[in-house]
Structures are given as C-alpha cells and as structure tokens.
Amino acid sequence: MDLSRRGLFGGVVAGAALTALPAGVSARASDGGCETRIDWESFLGEQDLVWHRIPRAWYEGPFLGNGFLATSVYREPGANAVRFTVDHAKVQDHRPQFGNEWGVARLPVGRVLLTPVGTITGVDLRLDLWNAELRGKIVTDRGELAVRLFVHATKSLLHLEVRASGGERATLAFQALAAVSPRTIREPPPATFPPNPEPVTRTVNGLTLVTQEMVAGGQTATAVRISQRRGRAEVLLSVDHSFPDRTAEATARTTVITALAPEVLRQQHQRWWHRFYRKSFVSVPDGLMQSFYWIQLYKLASGARAEAPIMPTSGPWLEPTPWPSVWFNLNAQLEYWPALASNHLELDPIPRSIAENQQILVDALRPEFRSDSMGLRRSTDPTFQDAGFVGSPLHPSPDPEIGNLPWLLHNAWLHYRHSMDERVLRDTVFPVLRRSTNYYLHFLRKGDDGRLHLLPTYSPEYGMAPDCNYDLALLRWSCRTLIESARILRIADPLLSRWQEVLDQLVEYPADAGGFMVGAGVPFAKSHRHYSHMLAVYPLCEVNWEQPERRDLIARSLKHWLSFEGALRGFTFTGAASIAAQMTAGDDALRYLREFVARFAQPNTSYFEAGPVIETPLSAAKSLQDMLVQSWGGLIRIFPAVPSAWQDVTIHDTRTEGAFLVSAVRRGGRTRFVRVRSEAGQPCRVRTGIESPLEVRGCAWSLHDGVVSLELRRGGEALIHARGERDFTIAPVRVTSPARRWGLPALPPGGGVVPVDLSGSFDNDGLSNEFTARDGDFDGSGNTYPAAQLPQTGSVTDDGVPFEFHNGDEASRNNVVCAGQTVAVPVGRYGKVHVLAAGDTGNVEAAGALSYADGSAPVVFRVTAWQQRPQFGESEPVATTVMHTPSGPVPRQVSIFHQFVAVDPARELSAVILPRTGGPRLHVFAITLEKPK
Hints:
alpha+beta; single chain; 30% strand; Beta-galactosidase, Chain A, domain 5; 55 strands; 933 residues
C-alpha cells in the first residue's frame, strides 16, 4: 500500500515552530543521580493550540472539561455569535428497554451564546494547556471582546469572563436544549418512545435554574449566574444529573451559590493541572507528534476521571451523532490505553465500572447462561445497561459478538499490571474474567482433529466465522491470565485444569497466504478498518514479534490488511503504528502515525466518523508511547521502535507493567541512561539498548543476552548507563522537525491564494458514510460520495491551490447547489477563481458572473458530471472507487473536479455570482481566489 506524503502541514496545524527549552531552566535534583531541567510552563506553551480564524464546528474549536462538565467553543451556525456548549458526562436517559440509541443515550444540556454588537471579523485565541484555560479575543467591526474561560478541574463549575473594548458590548445568555438523543441526526425517535418533558427555566434571587425532569425519573439541572456591568460580563455555571433521585437542582444551585471567588477557583484549578502534567514527561524532536501527544494528554484529562463515567464515543462533549453511548468493541478500550504509560491511573474508570456493575453483566446474557457467566453488549451506557442480550452462537443472531467483556477486562488487567494493586485483580479481574471465560466454554466443541473449536462468532465489524481469530485470541489470553491470576492470588480454582486444557487443545489461528484470516473458511478479503482479526498480535501480544516463528505471519497480516483501501479509517493507522512498533519498525510506525494525521486529524486534533469519536486520537498517543517504551511479557523495552530521524528522545516517569517508573534519555542516536524506580518490588528485566560495558547504581544486577535483571525492592531505584557516562540530565530535546501549531491559522492576507469560506452557503449534503448510505442526496436519486474516501482534514490541495473542504458530521451540509447565489469574497484584485465542483446528472455549461467594484461581467462555468472523467480540461483531485446508493455501495468512480474561470486583474472583485442550474445541477464544494502574478 502506498501511503501519502500529505499532512506534515497540509492545513492541519498552524502557527509558530516548536523549539526546545534552553538547558538549565527550572532545574530540580532527583534521586538516583538524575537531574530534571523542565520549564513546564514554557515547554507546554509551545504545544498550545491557537486560532486566528473563528472555528466553525466542534472539530475545529477549543475544548475544555473535567471528566464530567465539558464545553467546546465555535461559531454559532448561521448567526453572528459564539457558542460555548454545556455538556455533562452523567446526563443520559434511563430507559434501557428502548436500547442504547434512545433509551440510555447521552442527552444534551444547553449552550451559552455570546452575541456581540458588531459583526465578528476574526479571533485570536489560545488554549493554554499548562493552565487548562482558553484566553484571547474576538474581533468585530465595532471593537474587541477579551475572553477567558475555564472548567474547574474538580468542581462542576464553568467560568467565562468577557471584557469589551472599543465600541463593543457582549450579551451572554444560556439556552437550554431538549433532552432528546442526538441520534436524531440519523432518524427520528421511535413512535413508541415517550419524549422527556421540556426543560423548565425560572429565576431565583438572580440565579437562573433550568430543570429537566426525566420520564424515567431523576432530573438534570443547570444553575447559571450571569452578571453584566461596565463592559464586563461573567458566567458562572454548574450542571448536575441525579437518577433516580431528584436532587440535581439542589446540588447545582448550591454549587454556584457557595462557589469561591473566580480567582480562587482558578488557582485551585491550575494547581490540579500543574500536578497532573508533572507526573510524567515525553519529548521527541518531531514538533508535530510532540504537540499532538501533549494535546491528547490534555484531552484525556479533560474527558476522563477514575470516578467519572466511561467515556462514550464523543467523550464528555456531545454533538449530533448516531452513536450517543459507549461502544465496547474497540472504542472504550482504546480511550484509556494512554493513561497507563503516562502515569495517570487516576483517569481510568474501567476497573471501578466493572466492579460496580457485575449484576448487569450477568443480566446481559440469556437466562440459561446466567448461573456461571457474564457478558457485555456491544454498546451501552457507562454502567453496561442496554436492551437485549449478548449474542449467542446457540441462538439465531446476525452478529454473536461475545468478546467485548474479555477485551474490556484486558484493560482492567493492564491497570492491575501497571499498578500491581492486588485488589483490582482479586475483586474485579479474576472473578469477572472467570465468568466471561465460562461464556466462551459454552461454545467450544471437540473436532474430529482432536482440537477444541469455537462455534461461529462475530469478528467486530467484519462478519461471522467459526474459529473466529478475534475470539480465539481473547479466549487464549483469558485462560492464560486466569491461570496466572490464580497463582498470584493463591486460589486452587476447580477450573484450573479446564483452562489449561483449552490452552493445550484450542485450534491454531486460521491463516492463509494473506496472514490471519477472519476465521476458519473466511479469508480477510475486503477493506476493513478494524484489526479485530489481528487482536492476538495487538494488544494481546499472544502472537508477537519476539516469537521468530511468528514474524512472517505478523508481517504478512499487516501488509495484507492495509492493502485494501476504501474503508480504512483513523484507528486503522494507529493500530498499524502500534503493530509496527512491536515489530521494532520505528520508521514504519511513524509513517502510519503521520498518515493518520494527514488523512484524519482535524484542526484541534479531533476525529470523526459520522459523528465525533474520541478514541482514535487518544490511541495515536498510545502508539507513540509504544514506540518509546513497551513492557508486555515481563520485559521492559527502552526505545524499541524509535524512528531513525529521532536522534534525541527523553522519557521521564513513564509507568510500565510491574509498577515501575522509567526514565531514559537518547542523545545522538544512542541511549545514554535508564533510571528505574520500583513501586511494588516486582521482578525487573530491562532491555536498555545501551552498549556494554554497563554500570548499574542502586541495586544488585545481572546481564544476560542484552537484558539487565535488577534486584529492586519496593521504593528502590536503579540507574543504568554505559561506563563513563556522566550526564544524567532529563530535559526536553531540541525539535529538529518543526511544525505549525494545531488550531486554525489566519488566511494569508498577502499570499497568492485566498480560500473563501462557503460554509454559510451550503445547502446540500452530498456525502454519506459506510454506516448509512441513505444519509445525503447528491443527484436527486439518493446517491452520494463515500465520505471515507474523501479528504478528511478540512482541506485539499491541487496544483498548489488549497481549498477548504467540509467532510463533517453525518447529515451536515457540504456543498452549494448553484442557483444564482451571490458569494461575497474578500475585495481585491485576482487573476482566477478556482472551484472544486461537479455536475450531478450530467455535464454543466452555465453562465454566471463576476461582480466588480465598477460593475459585473459574465463568465461560463464548465464542469464535468461526477460519474465521468474530465470533459473540460479540469484536474481530478478527488476520485473514489465506490459510489453510495440508497441500497448500499456500488463499484463506481465518482469525482470532484478542479476548474477555474479567469478574472480581470485590473478590476477589484467583490463577489462571485454562481450560475442558475436545474438539470443537471452544478455543485460547488469550495472556492479559492488566486491573485495575479
């Protein structure tokens, strides 16, 4: 598969280059002979996101949160206002009989609208990661509005301050939203689904209280205090959700009334975040990936807490989405992986959630399995509640997907391994894994070959197969983990012999010339975003690169998987990066990560597939961690897959399995030293990559085949280095591959090209995703472009001309059907008007006009129909392999063309008048103006 070279910059990030800190800043002595020199505020300031254009959607704008209360910031669609969304992770419906899409779906709360007197003309905003605060200004034609916003790190409090200058004055207002599932983006609620009551708003002693009663019982409440005086406006806001009790209103009201002064709240908030960041450190010489990594840690801490609900697909933020609940066939697992190595176990709610909701896991199964088993439905609320039963191969089912619970338990096992907290193993992992494994045992059968075979089960998102590799991998891991756990816990379990029998007799993974199959008789033979068939390799490591006899299988499987374009998505490439990291192929791992950024990462590092999905960018942070340190299989591997271009790397207090905190420094392409601190006194084996002769300080040690074994007690630490090494400084590395900042850059005022913002004129949805081909209608017959094969990053460049491209949420509009509209453009002298466009039912030759300061002039737009090859000399920057129809995808190329019309460079252009087209119609996706040379 040829991966693109796009995305190093490509409209994804903007701003100043990243630079390393000067040595000697903020020095702090550390145990073991190391010294840290990290100026945290300066270093994180280099990773901040900045906006010099107003964001138009959630995937472009700033985002803040505390695992419960959350907000994102962007322009109010169709209005001269700025939206501050108000969302809360606990706010959901509680009617599981109606399923996860409606009955236990996340529900919206409201939004704060900031409306200026003048027309918004620009912004200069900065998301300060170090302080978790948004600051900057909104510029209008009447003046400026300075804004400052934070969501308190530990309290359900949002504080927004606006200061006006010039002739400006801002109005702030809270707007409550109806408690209806955002699934309405795809379809209306079922006719039998009683709607929740409308929210009720009242004012008590200057405090606005919005109470949302629920049909199922309980309530959501928002308390808002808005003060406006002398050019200054403030909002203090709190949200609470209670079920089945009706205490939310009292809680939200009390939280606002008793809140301390904003400056005191801000200090509390900043102290939490400063402690958070200092728990670990990563620095690489790649500016793009370094800033991306730190933004993901900020995102994770904004969206997650151990005491918070497991994040749904969109995190605590809520936007229109067909997926308003928690998904467990990949999403939830990927969300929390980066919390482990980054030393932030306080963000992981999975062990607690499993421990607290075991009866629901029992009830998720059909009654005949409940005596000894547990299971987890594919999508539920954060307590695992939903309608229906987990699939069973013994009952008619189109998708008996039975691996979700053991895969989630793998996360809990990793939490145990990184903390060595035996309570997690004894009270959660072992008893629940025992029951989830029992569920598998119901479906094993002895074959004529004497091996144990699994009845047909469902490989996530691909299909059914007997001896499904996804489930064989999870079953092997489950039995192996149960045996190890019983040994650790000193439990003589009567099922020990059965688990060992499964390990001894389970059929081998089905494979063919392409590598891992989906299952017996079902080859991997189509484009597929999910690596479910390769779960044995990653993350389970049941099949791994350190088994020489398995290397060819792993390499063939990875290559074959990626060879099918079409349905590949963001987490395809983050998964591929982590598999390549296990293969010690650092250059490949980096190439896959950059492919993810180029094709899928949005301006604020978010990601979408029909709606917001938070797991993929977070899993990319895990992929980077996998390149720098791995600890599976009882061995810590230092810098196992560092790309050749990364000569210098620093990691500090990275948490590994065995509850070790590891620091290491690579300079000039060589690992200089490794420091290991033990929290649990576990056996410690480290592959350092340091050339002999070695020295080890702090404990007894031995060396065998490149692996250092350390005899560390609980609380002990060791420093490993090459003989003669004397510099044990932990500091940021110099960035040798700089990148512009994430966020939105200003449009180039004096450059050669000027993209035009068409978003306010869009009136057609011509795109659909692979999950619902009925979303959108490009040609009047319900046919659409496949969103997965179109540019994802908000931009596309052809022949050096950049275009703004919109491939957003499901049901969003993304093009203009030409009907004589007048599109205002920045007034100036230009040589060409470039368009991304296509005809629908046929080629288009239609008259439009260019509006100059001194009059107008006719022009003719000639653009080819989307199902044909270029007829009018256009280029073809966007071409797909399939077309979506109401009945599903069909193999047919559809294209979007790049055409231009000439402009009189001696006259000042002020607007483009689009042609009137009927049948066929001309669809314009983007316009860019080119200045005369």
